Amino acid sequence: MTVSASSHETGKSGLRLLASNDDTVRAWPGGFGFAKVGANYGPSLVAQGEARARGYDQILWLFGDDCDVTEAGASNFFVVWKTHDGTMQLVTAPLDGGIILDGVTRRSVLELARTRLTGSVEGLAPLETVERKFTMAEVVLAADEGRLVEAFAAGTAFFIAPVAEIHFRGKDLNVPMGADGKSGSYAKCLKGWLQGIMYGRETHEWGVVVDEM
Length: 213
Hints:
It holds the Pfam family Aminotran_4. With 213 residues, the chain is of the alpha/beta class. The protein has helices spanning 7-10, 44-53, 104-116, 136-144, 185-198; strands at residues 15-19, 58-63, 68-72, 75-82, 88-92, 128-131, 148-155, 159-168, 171-174.
């Protein structure tokens, strides 16, 4: 494998993720991987440091013999792909295993996608929003078959950050980044909607205006 500089060092806009090895686990069922507590972050810092030393921005955490995709660093991970029947899907890991953080950004992304991307909007094809287990093998197959549309991480600190590359078992997967080379179209759209709500540019039930005293 060739070690290259991280996206921050090269000026690339997308994250470069290093898929975790079999002997590295972020969270186990029955633990507290679903909760925003310090113990979820401390142990992962060693792995993150190793990833950065190899030129990557974060770890893409996999779980189990099937390499289920879970999270990217301390953020939720999303992919947009086309199914074999041509359906465009937004896919992220489910909460029922107890190892995925139920973050507010994750919930916001899912709700906006389900309410606003069911039809064509801003030139984007409708999305089917899916929460299910999916494996790294499925991501690799989608990339190899040209069905992988984009991927992004979503979290409190990262907000919404596009993914440009995933390294998995000696193979580099280049993730499409959209026409501007900076972000996938769906991630850019969702991020814009969230920012509009956060900064009061859009009237929405999530945004409460507090008058100055």
